[in-house]
Amino acid sequence: MDAEKKGKDAEETEPWHKPKNGSVFPKERVSVKQMVYKKVKQVVVDFVESTAKKGSVSPAPEASNSNHE
Question: Residue 47, Cα to own-chain centre: how many angstroms?
């Protein structure tokens, strides 16, 4: 009877280790400096691309040929 009890208890109890969802290998760690650099870089790139698409970038002013003396 003890053997039957142990078998039932083993099946009904939860395992001591619960598997996690996701990858077995952890993600590569990234420093805060790298994260900030990537974010600032992305903001600058997005800004430059948006201004280039709008055509709001004016060409450099040409030098005037007339003399103002």
Answer: 19
57: Cβ–Cβ under 8 A, 6 or more apart, which residues? Answer: 51
Q: First CA to last CA across the chain, in angstroms?
A: 116
Which tens digit of pLDDT belongs to each residue from 1-48? 455 555 555 556 777 877 777 777 778 888 999 999 999 999 999 999
DSSP 13-36: SPPSSPPPSS-SSPPPP--HHHHH
51 with 57: CB under 8 angstroms? Answer: yes
